[in-house]
Amino acid sequence: MSARPEIAGARRVVVKVGSSSLTTLPGGLDEARLSALVDVLGGVRAGGREVVLVSSGAIAAGLAPLGMQGRPRDLATAQAAASVGQLRLVQTYADAFARHQVTVGQVLLTADDLTRRSHYRNAHRTVERLLALGVLPIVNENDTVATEEIRFGDNDRLAALVAHVAQAEALLLLSDVDGVYDGDPRSGPAQLIDTVRSAADLAAVTLGSARRNGVGTGGMATKVEAAMIAAHAGVPVVVTSTAQAAAALAGERVGTLFAVAGRRPGARQFWLRYASRPRGRLHLDEGAVRAVRERNASLLAAGITGATGEFLADDPVELVGPDGTVVARGLVAYDARELPALFGRKTGELDPEYRREVVHRDEMVLVGRRIVG
Predict the structure, then answer these.
(1) Is 133 a residue whose pLDDT tops 80?
(2) Which of 115, 117, 142, 289 could form a disulfide with 277 if both were Cys (CB 3.0 to 4.6 A apart)?
(3) Helix (H, G, I), strand (E, B) or coil at 365
(4) Which residues define the annotated binding site for ATP?
(5) Residue 146's pLDDT is what?
(6) How does DSSP assign 40-95, residue by residue?
């Protein structure tokens, strides 16, 4: 029996690989590294398991053909590099997987594709159909059109969202680091953390922040954040190096395992918590906060003291208490222009067309975070 049966027994896995594992400066795409990873994933496919690959590397792959010595700092040049590099990246993958008789399909996403509910459902259907056809989906952020306002920022979080979209049974986050350490192994003795079961296990750990030197944009902090999202959504995660991918997928005790920390939520609940982008805020009085938080009640107009933002009915909004804490996130039943006339009024005082809940409890998830700034 494997040391990690939840990983070894996963029939559908999402594997994320970063730019630093696939590319070098100034050479760009390293085909030998890419082929080595493909050989591992080709073996996994031959064993009857399904794989979704989330791959960074488009911008980095475009640097050498364009004669650039480093990652562009301005958005337009980065998008241009991605346009050149994405074609080369996917073609290299297609050729490498063809040696294993595996057909690949490209899925390009922006954050907007997952923050919009209808696009989220479309992404699920596309990935599901590709897998049903025996195709290995290769997912990447659509860097050619993504703007700073709507981009994921790194593909670790994208991979966590894709793991839920694809209904995966395991997620593997690969980089050039063996796993999560309790300190910086480059500056002194540090111990590899074998298993994380809750955020408390990392309370005393200082994680590296996102880096933007070289060809990568991620860091261990982003991987841990992504791993916690997936683990809380019922998907076990291993964070390890690309060199240990085969061992990790076989369930060997390598890297750091993030154990499942909750039941897998429904697609709508997961989308609301992790993928939706709030279009505004509803400000609640203390009674409404208690009703929502303690009694799992719907939000009624009587408990609302104000609203900010321009939103339409069925848009996601944040529910904020008097102390500035975001209590919940949910889908609002009214447009922003309709709500002011309803604030503080009991349901029986309203015209019949306005007596429905402002946010129904079935369209709401509890959050509990403090607004900064």
Answers:
(1) yes
(2) 115
(3) strand
(4) 16, 175-176, 217-223
(5) 54
(6) HHHHHHHTT-EEEEEE--HHHHHHTTTT-SS--SSHHHHHHHHHHHHHHHHHHHHH
Split at pLDDT 50, 70, 90, the class of 119 is: confident
At 196, which helix (H) or strand (E)?
Answer: strand 195-196
What φ, ψ does residue 131 adopt, rounded to 5°? -65, -40
- Residue numbering of the annotated binding site: 16, 56, 143, 155, 175-176, 217-223
The count of residues in the chain is: 373
The binding site for substrate consists of 56, 143, 155
Q: CA-CA-CA-CA torsion for 200, 258, 89, 95, nearest 10 degrees?
A: 170
- Are the beta carbons of 233 and 263 closer than 8 angstroms? no
- Contact between 117 and 275 (Cβ < 8 Å): no
pLDDT in tens, 303-328: 999 999 999 998 999 999 999 999 99
Pairing of strands 256-258, 195-196: parallel
- For the stretch 264-304, pLDDT in tens is 777 778 878 887 889 999 999 999 999 999 999 999 999 99
Do residues 202 and 180 make contact, with C-beta atoms less than 8 angstroms apart?
A: yes
C-beta of residue 62 within 8 angstroms of C-beta of residue 83: yes
Diameter of the chain measured on Cα atoms: 70
Beta carbons within 8 Å of 297's beta carbon, 6+ residues apart: 291, 361
The amino acid occupying position 109 is L
Q: How far apart are CA 140 and CA 62, in angstroms?
A: 14
**Cα three-residue angle 108-109-115, rounded to 5 degrees:** 165
Minimal CA–CA distance to 113: which of 141, 85, 74? 141
**Per-residue confidence at 360, pLDDT binned at 50, 70, 90?**
very high
What residue ranges define each of the domains in the chain, with the CATH number in brackets?
Answer: 5-270 (3.40.1160.10), 278-370 (2.30.130.10)
Q: Which residue has 């004669």 as its token pair?
A: 67
pLDDT at 213: 42
Closest CA to 158 of 92, 229, 105, 216: 229
- Residue 111 confidence class, pLDDT cut points 50, 70, 90: low
Residues 6+ apart with CB under 8 A from 352: none
Q: How many C-beta neighbours within 10 Å does residue 126 have? A: 16
